[in-house]
């Protein structure tokens, strides 16, 4: 408590003002927390002094709110790159010049009381393991804590996160008696998808029933947890490579929603062999054909490729060759490059034809691949166990060393 209080005084988090009778003075409270290391052992005991903000009335006592979110800052000078990832009081710093990083840490330490933890090994629940082949990011402790919260630490593991023969709907069985528990677990699973793209499809599907979960939804959620029980150490491997080739895999599942017949879009983006971006989402409108559903997904993937490419340009990494966009629907590929098909697709919004403009400018190269080679399949539909297990290694999902 004394360390926390002195840090607040040093950083001048407040200043004293004369008291008057018209002031509304807020109370305060000490919050105590045990911080753990990635292996579960105790790191330190932490105290935090907080104001009782709930005693204020919105629109009367305050007008602005702040929600902490991860922010990325980068600076490039004299050919050197410096990157900072900031989340409240947790900071991750990297760059291509060790001396510049040390200089920044010393400068910040003169203003703030910093605790330098050395090379990254645990950050916001994500563990980093340095291997000979690269760096592996996983969330083993996070998974263990999640299983404990769900009272499933001793459950039997399974081989896939879903039953490929089951399609979930809103009115699907009796209501679950503890909807708060369901929302809490599914919300925690959403954060886990940062390193586990193999559960992204099912977590997004479960998130569509947060308002009124049923027993069947909860059973489907427990199946995801059972998969995690047997794969808690699995994570994403990032490997060094010499070729800066950006590739995207686009797929769609037409009329996959039983409730509104909207289709599902999914994509995954690779830089070399490394999976760097992926998404699964229900489309905003009902597609009138499988070609339209595939084309909408193609447009979303193309936009992601352009954004990633612009991000790397800002970081000083130039990707000269066109981004490759893989799709297993020949009709959608034809729409992307052949204006003759335009008459059939007047009902599709103009922004979808954004893909065609990218193809014309040689920024995106749309190519066909066979459905069995479509990696985005794992993000758009429930797959048989054999196909699910075949696709996962292609995402560079590996088990961390003991």
TrEMBL record:
Cross-referenced Pfam families: RVT_2
SUPFAM superfamilies, per database record: DNA/RNA polymerases (SSF56672)
Reverse transcriptase Ty1/copia-type domain ranges (all copies): 11-70, 72-161
Transmembrane segments: none
Top-level lineage group: Eukaryota
PANTHER family: GAG-POL-RELATED RETROTRANSPOSON, RLK (RECEPTOR-LIKE PROTEIN KINASE) 8, PUTATIVE-RELATED
Name used for this protein in its record: Reverse transcriptase Ty1/copia-type domain-containing protein
UniProt organism field: Rehmannia glutinosa
Upper taxonomic lineage: Eukaryota, Viridiplantae, Streptophyta, Embryophyta, Tracheophyta
